[in-house]
Design goal:
Helix content is 64%, strand content 9%. A hairpin with a 2-residue loop joins strand 2 (315-322) and strand 3 (325-332). It has a 5-stranded mixed sheet, with helices on one face. It has 2 domains: 2-155, no CATH class; 180-391, Heat Shock Protein 90, CATH 3.30.565. The protein has 394 residues and is α+β, with helices and mostly antiparallel strands. Helix 2 packs antiparallel against helix 3, helix 3 packs antiparallel against helix 4 and helix 5 packs antiparallel against helix 6.
Length: 394
C-alpha cells in the first residue's frame, strides 16, 4: 500500500502542460490571488475559540502553506510536496471558522490538491480538509448550514481534477506528436537507406558489368596489338564497342523500367536475350510492378554473368507463373574457355538482395547433371503481387 502510494506521488502531475490560457493564468496570477485572499481573510477574521490571535495564527499558517505550494515541483521531492499539501489542507480546515473570507482558503486547498495530485491522493486530501473543517465548524459555530457549505466546498476538488486531466491529455498529445515525428524521421531514414541500396544495385547492374567487360576487352586488345596481331586486336575493340552499346541499351531499359508504372515482361525479356539464347515466357497474368522490375533485373544480371563467364555456352531463360508466384530460371552450360574470376561477386549479392527484398526464394549454384552439366544456374521465386514497390523505384 505504501509503495503504491509512493509511486503515485512520484508520477503526479508535476508541471502543467504549456499552451493553454488557464495554465498561464494559474502560473502567473496564483501568487497575486493567494495574497489577495489571504489579506481579505485577515482583515475580516473572526475570533476562533474566543481568541483573535489564534485566528491570525491559523490564517498565517494557512497562507504560508499556500505560498509553499507555489514552489516549483522540481525543487521539492514528492514527500515534501505531500507534506505541504497536507499542511495547507489542515491549516485551511482549522481556520474555516475564522470568517467568511477564511472559507476561500479551504476552496483554494481543495482546488490545489485536485490539480496536482492523482485522483486517489486528491480525494483523500479533500476528505481530510472537509473533516478538519467540519470539526472546526462543530467546535466554533452552532450554525447547521455550515455543514452544507463544508460539503459543497469539498466539491471544489472536481475542477482541479478536470484541470489535471486536461493537462495530462495535452502532455500525452504532445508526446504522441513527438513520437509521430520521430517515427516519420525514422521512416524517412529507412526509405533513404533503401533508396541508396536500390541505386547501388542499379549502378552495379547497369554500369559495372558493361564497364568491367569493356575494360577486359580493351586490355585484351592492347595485348593483341603488342603481340603483333592487329586483326584480332581490332576485332576485340569491336567487341568492346558492342559492350558499350549494350550497356547503353541496358541503361535505357533501366530508366524505362523506373519510369513506367507497368512492365511488359515478355517484350522486355525478349529484347534482353541475344541470338542463340533460348527464352520461354509463359502467360504470367497480372504481375505487380515491383515484381516485374525485379524479374527484369535478376534475369539481366544472370545473363550478364553467363555471357562473361561462359562465352559461347548455351543459355536458357524460363519465366513462368505458379499460383501466386513468378518463377524464373537462367541456366547456362560450361563455356568453351575457363571461366574468368574477374567479376566482383556483387552481381550475385545483388540478386540475393532483390529476392529477399520481396520475401522470395532463390537458388544459385553450379549445374551437376543434365544438358547444362558443368554450367551455372540462377533460379528465383517471387510473389506476383507485392506492396514493396517503394523500394524498387516504381
Amino acid at each position: 500500500m505504501l509503495s503504491r502510494l509512493r509511486r503515485e506521488l512520484e508520477t503526479s502531475d508535476e508541471q502543467p502542460a504549456s499552451g493553454a490560457w488557464l495554465d498561464l493564468f494559474d502560473e502567473r496570477a496564483q501568487p497575486f490571488i493567494t495574497t489577495g485572499l489571504l489579506v481579505l481573510a485577515l482583515l475580516t477574521a473572526n475570533p476562533v475559540g474566543g481568541r483573535m490571535w489564534l485566528s491570525y495564527v491559523l490564517l498565517a499558517a494557512s497562507g504560508a502553506f499556500a505560498y509553499a505550494r507555489l514552489v516549483p515541483a522540481t525543487l521539492l521531492g514528492p514527500l515534501a510536496r505531500l507534506a505541504v499539501s497536507v499542511g495547507f489542507c489542515v491549516t485551511a480546515g482549522v481556520a474555516f471558522g475564522a470568517g467568511d473570507w477564511a472559507v476561500s482558503m479551504v476552496i483554494l486547498a481543495c482546488g490545489h490538491v485536485g490539480t496536482v495530485w492523482p485522483p486517489r491522493v486528491a480525494v483523500l486530501l479533500t476528505v481530510l480538509t472537509v473533516a478538519v473543517a467540519s470539526a472546526s465548524n462543530a467546535l466554533g459555530s452552532a450554525d447547521p448550514w455550515l455543514w452544507y457549505t463544508v460539503l459543497l466546498i469539498g466539491l471544489c476538488v472536481l475542477p482541479g481534477l478536470a484541470t489535471q486531466n486536461r493537462r495530462r491529455t495535452l502532455r500525452l498529445s504532445a508526446q504522441l506528436v513527438e513520437q509521430t515525428q520521430l517515427t516519420a524521421e525514422s521512416d524517412a531514414r529507412a526509405s533513404a537507406l533503401a533508396e541508396r541500396t536500390r541505386i547501388a544495385r542499379e549502378i552495379h547492374d547497369v554500369l559495372a558489368h558493361s564497364l568491367s567487360g569493356v575494360s577486359l576487352q580493351l586490355d585484351l586488345a592492347d595485348a593483341q596489338f603488342e603481340a603483333g596481331r592487329p586483326e584480332q586486336g581490332r576485332a576485340t575493340v569491336q567487341r568492346a564497342r558492342g559492350l558499350v552499346v549494350e550497356g547503353l541499351d541496358e541503361a535505357r531499359r533501366a530508366v524505362r523500367a523506373l519510369r513506367e508504372g507497368t512492365i511488359d515482361l515478355p517484350v522486355t525479356l525478349g529484347r534482353m536475350v541475344q541470338p542463340g539464347e533460348q527464352l520461354t515466357c509463359a502467360e504470367l497474368g497480372d504481375v505487380g510492378a515491383a515484381t516485374a522490375a525485379e524479374v527484369v533485373r535478376i534475369v539481366q544480371e544472370a545473363l550478364t554473368n553467363a555471357r562473361r563467364h561462359a562465352q559461347g555456352a548455351p543459355v536458357r531463360v524460363t519465366v513462368a507463373r505458379s499460383g501466386a508466384e513468378i518463377q524464373l530460371e537462367v541456366v547456362n552450360g560450361p563455356g568453351a574457355e575457363a571461366a574468368s574470376d574477374a567479376g566482383s561477386g556483387m552481381g550475385l549479392v545483388g540478386i540475393r538482395e532483390r529476392v529477399e527484398l520481396l520475401d522470395g526464394r532463390h537458388e544459385i549454384g553450379p549445374v551437376n547433371d543434365g544438358e547444362y552439366a558443368g554450367g551455372w544456374r540462377v533460379a528465383a521465386a517471387l510473389p506476383a503481387q507485392t506492396e514493396n514497390a517503394g523500394n524498387n523505384g516504381n
